[in-house]
Design goal:
The complex is a heterodimer of chains A (248) and B (215).
Chain A: H1 8-16, H2 19-49, H3 55-70, H4 73-82, H5 84-92, H6 102-128, H7 131-139, H8 144-174, H9 186-197, H10 201-229
Helix pairs in contact in A: 2-6, 2-8, 2-9, 3-6, 4-6, 6-8, 7-8, 8-10, 9-10
Chain B: H1 6-43, H2 49-63, H3 67-77, H4 82-107, H5 111-119, H6 124-154, H7 166-174, H8 180-214
The chains are: A mainly alpha (248), B mainly alpha (215).
């Protein structure tokens, strides 16, 4: 079952052929960065949509979120991979199916999927800001978009930061979906190694590399959650804020 | 060629049933194992601390690595029926997530509950069984249900190791046609069924939460 796990020769061969692992590692990181940008931008837009007064925008956001949260990411990615090229062909009228690189499929796949989750995070963040803030901003002559940009969104950061980091962690893990469509990411290259050599060590190396990315994120989430629970304290400005009472 | 023939639809629905079977078994075992892990991480102090560290390591390891990795890992190392392999892979992975959910539930219970139970002469296990766990599960039901939808969604990763679950059977049928409209229809069908199942579950959660707030 786990035979050859402590075989030194197998470990040597694995460590000698780390090239594809590092390629996959870099590829995964690139997909993560682009996917994260897509999900943050789209998620913020959708999150703001879901708190506006316009019924249409709210409905758009709702439908998007429910669809992407309730269907599996692998199915979405298979769809982009298998049907995407021919749908694009039909739309653009190209003579042959439009090739989509696995990088684009990966980044767009996880980006669109996590945008739904980011949108929900942003929505709860905005809803946590008291209504009076928007009213106060409006009374000072801010337009609604300005009020969102300068008053509301900055105040949501403390609430949304821990769940956003959690989403980032999930996004990193979910990029492994690319392995299902021969995507050249870390998981795929590791799986390739294992099926070539038949050594379990390939999975263990992949495990280590994923852990290296995700564990700092998990620690960050823990730290941010702890920080968000602390009660806010006024900054001490000498001469302005009252001196802290010294205990006798 | 028409692909929504009776044989094909039966084949795909058999895959859907397999998805349900694997998910249900995986969730039941994960809740059992996850509860035990959470109890160890929360309550093993003093001389038993070593168990706490082991469990913490287990939880962090599985929280920080992709699900697919463990599916492939178990598929490669363990021989058995496809349902057994799938359920095992999902259980070791999901139990780590559920352990954290259960621990969150423990933390929401006032300390006085433990003290009161002890003062009434309950031992550790009967305190858990009669006082703590019933309250814990009541508070974490929403989180557990949304973990169910995660498991159902992630079970489509199993198509990667050729387990004949829903996504895999749909892909097999898709191989019979080159007609774009048929492919799109089939994807629509797959999306619809997954959506109906998961959305149904999340509606139940929302109804439950509303009742909880009203009460």
């Amino acid at each position: 079952m786990l035979d050859g796990l402590f075989d030194a020769r197998r470990w040597n061969i694995t460590l000698d052929s780390m090239g594809p692992f590092w390629d996959g590692f870099l590829f995964t990181l690139q997909v993560v960065v682009v996917g994260l940008v897509i999900s943050l931008v789209l998620g913020t837009v959708l999150g703001v949509f879901s708190t506006t007064r316009s019924r249409v925008l709210r409905a758009v956001s709702r439908v998007y979120v429910e669809f992407f949260q309730n269907t599996p990411l692998p199915v979405q990615v298979f769809f982009y991979y298998m049907a995407g090229p021919r749908v694009l062909q039909a739309i653009t009228g190209a003579p042959s199916p439009v090739r989509i690189s696995s990088f684009v499929i990966g980044a767009v796949g996880v980006g669109l999927y996590h945008a739904a989750y980011v949108s929900e995070v942003i929505r709860t963040g905005i809803e946590s800001v008291p209504r009076g803030q928007m009213e106060a901003a409006r009374s000072q002559g801010f337009s609604r978009p300005q009020a969102y940009l300068y008053i509301i969104l900055p105040q949501t950061f403390k609430v949304i930061l821990p769940p956003l980091c959690n989403q980032t962690l999930n996004l990193v893990k979910n990029t492994s979906v690319l392995a299902l469509i021969a995507g050249g990411d870390l998981m795929y290259n590791a799986d390739n190694f294992v099926s070539t050599y038949g050594y379990l060590q390939g999975y263990i190396m992949a495990c280590v590399l994923y852990f290296v990315i995700c564990f700092p994120l998990a620690l960050l989430v823990q730290y941010l959650e702890k920080r968000a629970k602390r009660k806010p304290r006024a900054k001490v400005i000498p001469g302005v804020t009252p001196e802290p009472v010294k205990e006798a | 060629m028409e692909i929504f023939t009776q044989a094909n639809v039966t084949f795909i629905l058999a895959g859907f049933l397999k998805t349900l079977e694997i998910s249900a078994l995986a969730i039941v075992f994960s809740i059992l194992l996850g509860t035990v892990l959470a109890m160890v991480k929360q309550f093993c102090r003093g001389r038993l601390s070593i168990f706490r560290w082991i469990v913490s390591g287990y939880i962090e390891l599985f929280r920080c690595t992709p699900n697919l990795l463990w599916i492939l890992f178990i598929y490669f190392t363990v021989k058995g029926s496809d349902v057994f392999v799938s359920v095992l892979a999902f259980t070791i992975f999901t139990s780590a997530v559920i352990a954290e959910i259960v621990r969150g539930g423990f933390n929401s219970i006032p300390k006085s509950q433990f003290e009161a139970a002890q003062s009434q002469g309950f031992g550790f296990f009967s305190t858990m069984r009669y006082v703590i766990l019933p309250q814990t599960f009541r508070t974490i039901i929403p989180a557990l249900f949304s973990q169910c939808t995660t498991v159902i969604k992630d079970s489509s990763y199993l198509a990667g190791i050729n387990v004949a679950e829903f996504m895999f059977s749909a892909k097999v049928v898709m191989g019979y046609t080159t007609n774009l409209n048929q492919v799109l229809l089939l994807y629509g069908f797959v999306f619809l069924l997954y959506f109906a199942l998961n959305f149904g579950i999340s509606l139940i959660v929302r109804a439950y939460q509303r009742r909880l707030v009203a009460a």
